[in-house]
Design goal:
Length: 374
């Protein structure tokens, strides 16, 4: 908790020194006879015992701050309560309390949690600045997004009659009712427009064509396609600029990459071109099922979102921040989203049988909180 690591105590870096201070305050109070006598008669003792038991159980189970909110709320009152019962002068207690508050404030300031999740500052009155053109402002089109985040914050700036759908959230196994809703929406739309972050306003045409081709490969199973790059236009956005400029050398020129806005590309929908998403070969799907059965905590059965590529399938488990990389050769590796390198757990279509070695010792996820470093 005191170490400024992210992804363990909470997702962002948030060093919490209060429990270390609490231990020091308790030790100071209990070292004096008057402090021990006062503690025996006060309600602080059973409250401290409750907090200690809850703290131990919490560390043994998760160590994640979101599951210890009652204990975290107790830390401050217990700290002041034990400091109050110490055999120190009033001025010394006030001084120590002020120092503890200042040190904790300094630690938070050093790893500021504010804007940790924010891409950009809120710009009044729209929140997210986009240079909307007249067509986007008035055309009742159906807008399709493929990214996560979906940038739905820009939707109110478009026509109020427009409709929006994010296909990224519908990857994997769709229920029949979801599939029917997608087909009905696309078939009933007179104008369909792809909305996606734009990297550069002055990108070379070859890169733009490659981008269009990549989107068409992603969209082809939906029956959607972009005919040509001239069907795309860009809406600049000051809110999309990165905090640190990214520069790329192209020939003799140095181009500063964005994202700097949104590409809007007109698309056509052909219901006859809709294809079911490709599926993993049966033997590999069976192997993934074995992994889910052996380690349901990190790979919940039936909840994986599969993306089938040419020689590999990526199975994403958002609820546990895990991914499986399933190669056509039968080699399977898992990757925790904070880890740098994947861990192989199957080769030649054969799963490692030492489940305890790979499922109960996932680096960054297993063991005591202080042992989860990467």
């Amino acid at each position: 908790m005191a170490a400024p690591n992210s992804g363990v105590y909470v997702e962002i870096m948030a060093p919490d020194l209060r429990f270390a201070f609490l231990a020091c305050a308790m030790l100071t109070a209990l070292l004096s006879t008057s402090g021990r006598q006062a503690a025996r008669k006060a309600a602080i003792m059973p409250l401290t015992l409750y907090g200690a038991v809850a703290f131990a159980l919490w560390l043994a189970t998760s160590g994640n701050g979101r599951y210890f909110i009652p204990g975290l709320l107790l830390a401050g009152p217990l700290l002041i309560g034990w400091l109050y019962r110490s055999n120190l002068s009033r001025s010394m207690k006030m001084t120590i309390g002020g120092i503890m508050l200042a040190v904790q404030g300094w630690a938070v300031w050093q790893t500021s949690p504010w804007d940790a999740w924010s891409q950009t500052a809120w710009i009044a009155p729209t929140g997210f600045q986009v240079a909307i053109d007249e067509r986007a402002r008035t055309e009742p089109a159906t807008y399709v997004t493929l990214t996560s985040p979906t940038y739905s914050i820009v939707a109110p700036q478009f026509s109020h009659e427009a409709r929006w759908i994010n296909l990224d959230s519908l990857q994997g196994h769709r229920r029949p009712i979801e599939e029917e809703a997608v087909r009905s929406l696309l078939a009933g739309s007179r104008q369909i427009v792809l909305v996606t972050p734009a990297e550069s306003a002055k990108a070379q045409s070859v890169s733009d064509w490659e981008l269009v081709s990549a989107f068409n490969r992603r969209l082809q199973n939906e029956g959607l396609s972009i005919a040509r790059f001239s069907d795309c236009r860009m809406l600049p956005s000051a809110s999309m600029r990165p905090r640190v400029p990214i520069r790329l050398t192209r020939g003799n020129d140095v181009v500063e990459l964005g994202p700097v806005g949104f590409w809007l590309c007109d698309m056509k929908y052909d219901a006859s071109a809709v294809r079911p998403p490709p599926r993993m070969p049966e033997r590999l799907a069976s192997l993934v099922g074995e992994i889910e059965h052996a380690c349901p905590r990190f790979f919940p059965p039936g909840r994986g979102q599969s993306t089938v590529l040419e020689n590999m399938t990526i199975v994403n488990y958002p609820s546990s921040d895990m991914k499986l990389y399933v190669h056509s050769s039968g080699e399977i590796s898992y990757l925790y989203y904070r880890a740098l390198n994947p861990v192989q757990i199957a080769s030649n279509g054969v799963l490692r049988r030492d489940t305890e070695a790979w499922c109960d010792n996932v680096q960054g996820r297993s063991g005591a909180p202080w042992a989860r470093g990467l």
